[in-house]
Amino acid sequence: MAFYVRAFTTTCPGALIDSINDNVNITPTLVQIISIGDGNSTFDFTATLSGAEETEFDNVLAVWVCPAETDPSPNPVDNQNFDDTEPPAEDVIWSSEQITNNFAPLTRTITGTKSVSGGGDLTADRTVELVNDQDAPGNYKMYATNGSGTKGWYDQPSGGGGGGDFDEFDFAESLPWSDTSSTSYQRKLRLTTSSLPAGLYRIGWSYRFHSSSTSYDYKGRVQLNDNIDLMIHRQEPQDSGTDQSLRAGGFAYYSLSGVNNIDIDFASSKSGKVAFIAEARLEIWRVDPSNTTYTPGDVPGNHGSGSSGGGDDD
Question: Which residues face 268 on adjacent strands?
Fold first, then answer.
């Protein structure tokens, strides 16, 4: 669209539009004439006029006279041929107040500020976006600033001090007392995970235990996938009564993915002596989705991990 403002008014804008559109020396179509007050009008063409076309346009305005009105009475003969064709819509002439109230000027601008960039005036389609935005930042990203104050998409924080993610949570428990007199490990509880997305996971465990003997060790362990000892526990109880039972527990971090099995096993260190276990609990959750390669450098051996007391390895 192209707009031309002229010091010109007319009482017959429809006739003038027809005259200009019938002019073979003017190619673009005149869509409407808008009166903007103070004796001025805006002419709305479908395209920009060439220099010769604009001269021809001005020449038409200079000599324009509204055509004489004809008798509106219909010819009696034509009355027999009337049909249901709708009459053409009347030409709309907008006042300057109507234009101000209904349209935004092309010089008005919409621009971004602070964390938003882009925009511009209304002469074309405009877009706004975040500073340093990306089409696909990826999972577990957040829009923030780095250590230099640069805005953009960064990994979400992880670790105990900073919050991070707490997802992919699962747990299992077996609360009643179980016992064995075997020196081979017996399973008390297994947690089989769903297919885990890759990341760093926290595995936690706890249980209550005692033994029928105060001379031989209670044996316990926590295993990952039947081949990684997360905790080996041996402890000689000071009392064989159930009211003197002890507790053990701990946690470890591993980078995992897929289906995993976590077990709490127990045994007696002396055949015929009974080991007891109850309130066994396992839990796992992902703490860092971006850490997929962490493995503890010191896998626990023959030492406890948070048990309530120590014991001798007999």
Answer: 218
Q: CA 253, CA 297: separation in Å to the nearest integer?
A: 11
- Spell out a b/e string for 130-169, using b for 16 or more CB atoms within 10 Å of the CB, else e: eeebeeeeeeeeeeeeeeeeebeeebbebeeeeebbeebe
Q: Judge contact between 182 and 268, C-beta under 8 A.
A: yes
Q: Confirm if 166 and 287 have CB atoms less than 8 A apart.
A: yes
Quote the domain boundaries for residue 119: 107-155
pLDDT digits (tens, 9 = 90+) for 255-305: 999 999 999 999 998 888 898 899 999 999 998 888 888 877 634 333 333
Which tens digit of pLDDT belongs to each residue from 211-238? 887 778 889 999 999 999 999 999 887 6
Q: Are 285 and 169 in contact (CB under 8 A)?
A: yes
| 132 and 187 co-located in one domain | no
Which of 44, 62, 80 represents a domain boundary (last residue)?
Answer: 62
Q: What angle do CA 125, 130, 133 make, to 5 degrees?
A: 105
Q: Which pTM was predicted?
A: 0.46
Structure tokens, 66: 């509204």
- Reference 311, options 252, 244, 232; nearest CA is 232
